[in-house]
Design goal:
The chain is of the alpha/beta class and about 250 residues long. The protein contains nine helices and ten strands. Bound molecules: adenosine-5'-diphosphate and magnesium ion. Adenosine-5'-diphosphate binds next to strand 2 and helix 1. It comes from Oceanobacillus zhaokaii.
């Protein structure tokens, strides 16, 4: 796959919850190794976009294309598709009865049918990468929130996804633990991982993001590179939002 290939393309995506029109004609593309950051007020539809990209929510209309292939939930094996799209949530949802390494190797063994010794080798490598080599045999209850979230990141990476989705990965953390998770994400980005990140961490958005999408009431009303969005937003509503969060 060449450097400029398209990983995700979303066209005219619409989503309703009952009568509530939550996503309105969303168009977005994510190129290989790009970090796309979604910002916007609470309730604007950020999580719903990510959940549609991972097919945890069913879109009502529009198309989602993954690496050139249009994904139709009715006809495709969504578990296969989800292996290609890793997701990290605000709440880490680790298996409490499994060790850190146990959490990381579970899906590769059960879902991908990777040999256990191979999964263990890969898992140890990933835990090293997120700075948790010394926690391999520890249970999640013994970890800080920042460490749990780094395990969650390693667990998602263990499936070798083509793109990683992050939904406010630091919002549930104590302030002093936010930095270590953002640093892990930054490192991933520098290694070329394709990422879609929902965050209120504007420093991260500015420093690591390639494209910023500003979502307002279910619509992307402004998009641009960090310099454009943070230094000279065109839309009054973007300026208003940024004045509250910066
Ligand atoms: P954000 O992540 O930007 O805070 P969400 O995508 O979670 O926003 O939500 C967008 C809108 O959709 C909100 O009005 C929210 O209340 C509504 N919503 C989200 N999930 C559901 C659901 N499962 N059922 C009904 N309404 C929902
Ligand atoms: Mg959300």
């Amino acid at each position: 796959m060449n450097e400029k290939s398209e990983i995700i393309r979303v066209e005219k995506l619409n989503k309703y919850f009952g009568d509530l029109h939550v996503l309105k004609d969303i168009d977005m593309t994510v190129m290989k190794s790009e970090v796309v950051v979604l910002i916007g007020a609470s309730g604007s539809g950020k999580s719903t976009i990510l959940r549609c990209l991972n097919f945890l929510e069913r879109k009502d209309s529009g198309t989602i294309t993954l690496e050139g292939e249009i994904i139709e939930p009715k006809t495709q094996n969504l578990n296969r598709v989800r292996e290609r799209v890793g997701m990290v949530f605000q709440h880490f949802n680790l298996f409490p009865h499994k060790t850190v390494l146990g959490n990381v190797i579970e899906a590769p063994i059960k879902v991908k049918k990777i040999q256990k010794d191979q999964a263990i080798r890969d898992g140890i490598e990933l835990l090293k990468k997120v700075g948790l080599s010394d926690k391999i045999n520890v249970y999640p209850s013994k970890l800080s929130g920042g460490q749990k979230q780094r395990v969650a990141i390693a667990r998602a990476l263990a499936m070798k996804p083509d793109v990683m989705l992050f939904d406010e990965p630091t919002s549930a953390l104590d302030p002093e633990l936010v930095g270590e998770v953002l640093a892990t994400m930054k490192q991933l980005a520098e290694e070329g991982m394709t990422m879609v990140v929902v965050t209120h961490e504007m420093g991260f958005a500015r420093e690591v993001g390639n494209i910023i999408l500003y979502l307002h009431d279910g619509k992307i009303i402004e998009r641009g590179n960090p310099k454009e969005i943070f230094e000279s937003p065109r839309e009054e509503r973007t300026r208003e939002f940024l004045s509250k969060v910066l």
